[in-house]
Amino acid sequence: METATPVQRKVTRPRADALRNRERIVTAAREMFVEYGPEVPLDEIARRAGVGNATVYRNFPDRDALVREVVCSVMDRTALAAEVALEETGDAFEALSRFVHTSADERISALCPMVQGTFDKNHPDLEASRERLEELVGELMERARRAGQLRDDVGVGDVMVAVSQLSRPPAGIACAGVDRFLHRHLQLFLDGLRAPAHSVLPGTAVTMEDLRQA
């Protein structure tokens, strides 16, 4: 009795135009979530992305799927900023500063209202993006700490909270209205991170786990 040879199935790759449409949807959703919040109508996102509603639902069957993709996208782009800062910036504290300014431009502040939604916060894609970001930011901070440039009483969570809060406009003020102040205030924050510390911080260094449990 002969054993049947397994049939080799050809792996179907997404077409280039389909990938571009997906990226346009994620980019448009990210922009509109920042401007209007995570409840913005999906047809408005489709309109900004320049695609039909059917294309949005073909890529993302529901709002939770789109929100999760946007959260992952923001974290991945922020992690890339940390990676580039590590590779291209020689001075340890300057690398951390470069990351802080770039991550603010990625609008990581938009994550806060989105992660309070109903979707699965322990989804494998989210876990992977979160772990990569935390590891890279931790590496940036540890390098600055070893160089004697970063105070000892701050953690990854402290940096991410500050970037998120400082890049989020006050209620009733458009994002564009505060953009010209953003990097000024981030620099004030960075100066406060430098060693030697000039004050004692209340509490202990904040970790990402502290933020998840808050």
TrEMBL record:
Residues 41-60 bind DNA. SUPFAM superfamilies: Homeodomain-like (SSF46689), Tetracyclin repressor-like, C-terminal domain (SSF48498). Keywords: DNA-binding, Transcription, Transcription regulation. GO terms for molecular function: DNA-binding transcription factor activity; transcription cis-regulatory region binding. Gene3D superfamilies: Tetracycline Repressor, domain 2. Residues 19-78 form the HTH tetR-type domain. This is TetR family transcriptional regulator.
